[in-house]
């Protein structure tokens, strides 16, 4: 029998709280912290599916795109059932949004701040399976709010008991304590101007009582006796925002602003006015069922070492294979004689290497922008796939700040200045008084990789919403965050930031706004051998690590259920055209030449052979279209775009071609072409820009042209296929290949589909002097796309 580590729900102090396991105090309320906590006895099969039966069908070969948690969860389940699995990842590291990497100076840099709640049963199951469960550190069972001036909002146990009796009476079952523990500990003592005395009278009592009433009238209370029914009620609330629901139940706007907004930002990166009531209440429903469901853990070190690493080792030990830096250029597919669509391969590339990967089952374990780039445009004729384009990602910026002292040490100024021993708040921290809704001192919470002898705090701050920060230079972001940290912790005055990092993700979690849940796709698709995984896909949880893990389990189950059918399809294809795949592998650079891949154009001529002067009539047409877009662009759209500036010239210090490659790659990842935001600092003022339809000079004009197009994009995506540096005898240059897909907001809604490449010629200071695009369509065909209605586009 596994041992339990028992932790009391203690009030917050300015110190790290160290409590020995198995200490007995009769007056404390104890919560269990072992991963053996059987949260799955909530009986919600959708959230916590039972262990799958042993697979007895034929062995399958499965190709997975994406080595994030969803892809690796899928792989683990399939390998456990005896299948053959290959995972392809375009990045040089695994983990996806939970990934991390080490920079040249040895600093671990994360994609975001990751915490593990006690209701993450599927993720904990995976971690136990791969031996990573020992890598979690349990934190005090307190949701801690930090207000301006260093005022800490915590929860003493006597206050929980007071409100317990107030709402439910003195006789309370164990499960009710879970609901109250979460709701009350984060509700009381939020507002720095309130003291304990205010809890029994005046404005504070009123505000807290309204909170209690709102939650008492919610499905959260129903979950105490009927979890399945409560979750169905929660699903039915997807069409309204949490603010609308909360206010309709008697909650107050002050409670939303000071308490629930930070929680919403931490969960979904958007505020209560914009987040679905389903998203918030899903979490609260789980927290209501058991006390330990809201108990928080964090990794002892970086995700790559302590989460992704053990999963990777398990997959390799089971015979699975990782293929890093291999990106999927295209999904190749065909239709059978009975009209059914099936995938015939993934067209893959790594630098200049190309290949076609074939399998029995194909899984796209991507995020929202990734799956939009990958799906063939013709598949949008299915509502199933077209619905995906109704989902959009939320931008988020993660900042790390290393100090020469302990920022969150509030009780002892001298202790905060010494570097011999770590000191401060060892927990996830919320705040309503900064642009980062949640943060933590990783040197305390995850010391294995982040505590460095002779150095101090490593604050990791999550900026939500991230939109205002995306176009800002890193130096300005760091300055703003540092100033806000000082406002929260005045005692940190005089401490210096010795190192910092900024990670921008243009689209992270999908925006879980009201009415978006119906657009989440199932893991099983209309294409019989093509499956999806990812936290955005359909599962009774939110976009999170737990949701990603659960989606992988569900994808694996669908694949195993279809085992016989998938093998039958394999045999049918082998008999039908045994030599066609060999022919496809030996084709030239254009892998979509009529084998099975679908193209958006009728031809894909070689870019080099089509290097010829654009006819004058086309130049006139392009100029006319540009002027038309300018006239159609409304003033409100223009004013909105004017508020978004290009990245300033002092953001980067370019010292070589590698720096240019890194910056360009970042611009592509942030979808510069469809947002209008690019790093102008690496271009010369008189840089030449050209494509098959137009040629002009000046980076300011390029910036204006980009911003002119942005309001007309509908469901856009631009994916970087590969980027590589080249050095010849005459000049340095960078070559990037990419894929653009977007509808235009014109009455006939044309679809623009262009696969292209860009050559960036550099001067001796490594600034871009020429930006030259080549396309897989001619200038005439490109103009033709612009005037072709969607309903008139060919499907071949």
UniProtKB/TrEMBL annotation:
Recorded hits in SUPFAM superfamilies, A to Z, give:
FAD/NAD(P)-binding domain (SSF51905), NTF2-like (SSF54427)
What the record says about family reads: Belongs to the zeta carotene desaturase family.
Q: Which InterPro entries match?
A: Amino_oxidase (IPR002937), DUF2358 (IPR018790), FAD/NAD-bd_sf (IPR036188), NTF2-like_dom_sf (IPR032710), Zeta_caro_desat (IPR014103), Zeta_carotene_desat/Oxidored (IPR050464)
Task: List the GO molecular function terms.
Answer: 9,9'-di-cis-zeta-carotene desaturase activity
Q: What is this protein called?
A: Zeta-carotene desaturase
- EC number, UniProt record: 1.3.5.6
Catalytic function, reaction form: 9,9'-di-cis-zeta-carotene + 2 a quinone = 7,7',9,9'-tetra-cis-lycopene + 2 a quinol
* GO CC field: chloroplast; chromoplast
Q: Which residues form the signal peptide?
A: none
Which keywords does this Swiss-Prot/TrEMBL entry list? Carotenoid biosynthesis, Chloroplast, Chromoplast, Oxidoreductase, Plastid
Q: Which Pfam families match?
A: Amino_oxidase (PF01593), DUF2358 (PF10184)
Ranges of residues in domain Amine oxidase = 69-559
Q: Which PANTHER family has this protein been placed in?
A: PROTOPORPHYRINOGEN OXIDASE, ZETA-CAROTENE DESATURASE, CHLOROPLASTIC_CHROMOPLASTIC
Location(s) in or outside the cell = Plastid, Chloroplast; Plastid, Chromoplast
In which pathway does this enzyme or protein participate? Carotenoid biosynthesis; lycopene biosynthesis
EC top class, as a word: oxidoreductase
This molecule's function is given as: Catalyzes the conversion of zeta-carotene to lycopene via the intermediary of neurosporene.
Q: Name one GO biological process term.
A: carotene biosynthetic process
Q: Which Gene3D superfamilies match?
A: FAD/NAD(P)-binding domain (3.50.50.60)
